[in-house]
Amino acid sequence: MLYPVYIYPGDANTAHGIVFPDFPGCHAAADEWEHIPAMCQEAVEAHFAGEPATAVPAPSPLSELQNNPEYTGGVWMLADIDLGKLQSAPVRLNISLPANLVRQIDGYANKNGMTRSGFLAKAASMAMAD
Prior knowledge:
Blueprint: E1 2-8, E2 16-19, E3 27-30, H1 36-47, H2 62-65, E4 75-80, H3 99-111, H4 116-129
Antiparallel strand pairs: 1-2, 1-4, 2-3
Helix pairs in contact: 3-4
Domain HicB-like antitoxin of toxin-antitoxin system: 3-124
Organism: Dentiradicibacter hellwigii
Protein name: Type II toxin-antitoxin system HicB family antitoxin
C-alpha cells in the first residue's frame, strides 16, 4: 500500500530523515536515497510489531498533506509498504491434528527451544515461502 512519507534530505555527514505522517512516532533514516524504501518498510514493521492489523491506518491522500506547513525543507515520496509483512498480534485458533503428529510436533519444538505455536507458525511461513 502506498503511504506518503516526508524526506528531510541529508548530506555527507547526516542521513536522510524519514517521517510518516500517518504513523505518529514512526521515523526512519537512510544514508542513501536508494535505501529509503527498505528503511521505510523496516520502520513500519518495527512500529507496528505485535499490534492488531486494525491498528494500521489507511494512507492519507498526499493532496491533504502537501500544503501542511509542518513539512518544509524536504520532499514528499510515496513508500510502498507491504502490510503483509507486519507481525500482528497472535490470533488464537482451534485446529485438529492426529495425536501422534501433535506428540511429534511437541517433541521437535521442545528439543529446539520452541513452543508448539511457534513451530507451527514457522513451518507454515516456510511452506508458503516456496
